Amino acid sequence: MRARRLIAAASVAALAVLSLAACGRTAPDVAAYVGDATWSTERVDAIYDDVQADFGEAVRQELGRTGVSPSPEQLRSTVTRQDVLNLLVSLELGKRVVAEKNLQVADNVSATQLESVLRVPATTEYTRLWSEWIDILEALNAQLPPAELSDDSVMAVYHAIAETGAIDSGLSVAEVRQAFGDGGFVRSATAVSVALQEEAERADVSVNPRFRSLGVPSFVSGPQGPIVYALPYVDEAGPVTDISTPEPPQSSEPAEPVDPNDPAGVTEPVDPNAPNAPAEPVDPNAPAGATEPVRN
After folding, report:
1. Mean pLDDT: which of 6-10, 115-119, 225-229 is highest?
2. What is the rounded distance in angstroms from the CA atom of residue 78 to the CA atom of residue 88?
3. Helix (H) or strand (E) holding 222
4. Residue 229 pLDDT > 60, yes or no?
């Protein structure tokens, strides 16, 4: 089934949380703590292994119909253990914010709808968790008051997207602002970030140093469909308490403006012959996230 729309999943790197070593919770077999909740490294490994096994089998079946033998690279999903932990922690924080603020969450998104977007079979727990996360993120984006737009928040989103290789790096604040249009999706993303930051502080979030950082699972629209990325909010060195980013050198050519009224859409399912193909550059005529949820 094709998904028609994706909600913007951008969030700003401003969650002030403690490192695992700083708070004294140093069990080597625990990947992360959120209050009394914990996720073991074994749990993260199990979800990750499930992704790799189901992805590899899906590729074998698809290419087997054409008589093509997949390469080892084609049999591996680009999902990492870091991605798994990002999802688990962000989902827990999102649930806590929804409960504390008494927000309404609609069940709009299914794992089947996200299968081609994530390039992961709907049968995996990872994809099912993503469908739950998108529903929560939709509620947060729709029901939290938009935040003030700042250069730091704009550049935090930009650098996270640029890190995937899907958009040119080295743009100035002015060029990014021009490309992002009125920045409405950044305003809503920042509001989500602030809410998660407050909950992270209350829940005393901490992460095993084995994982270099934690990030908010996010989508941005590209010419070939949504690009999955993550905005970091804690790293192995300690809490992320500032989203300030030095302004990069001026580009020789200005960025094209983004049309804020053109919502992101999902393209055809990913070609199984190239499951690990790099993302195309971000479409300058599409906003970095849609304003409508995925629907049947």
Report:
1. 115-119
2. 17
3. strand 213-222
4. yes
* Cα gap 200→15, rounded to integer Å: 7
CA pair distance 283, 221, nearest whole angstrom: 7
Identity of the amino acid at 294: V
Nearest Cα neighbor of 9 from 187, 137, 193 is 137
Q: Does residue 215 register a pLDDT over 70? A: yes
Q: Which amino acid is at 257?
A: P
| Average pLDDT of the residues in 187-202 | 81
State the pLDDT at residue 15.
Answer: 39
- The answer to whether the Cα torsion of 183, 185, 186, 190 is positive or negative is positive
Could you tell me whether strands 206-207 and 213-222 are parallel, antiparallel, or unpaired per DSSP bridges? unpaired
Of 194, 105, 197, 99, nearest to 145 by C-alpha is 194
Place of tokens 């193909």: 277
Determine how many CB atoms are found less than 10 A away from the CB of residue 231: 29
Half-sphere exposure at residue 245, Cβ-oriented, CA atoms within 13 angstroms:
24
> What is the pTM for the complete model shown?
0.72
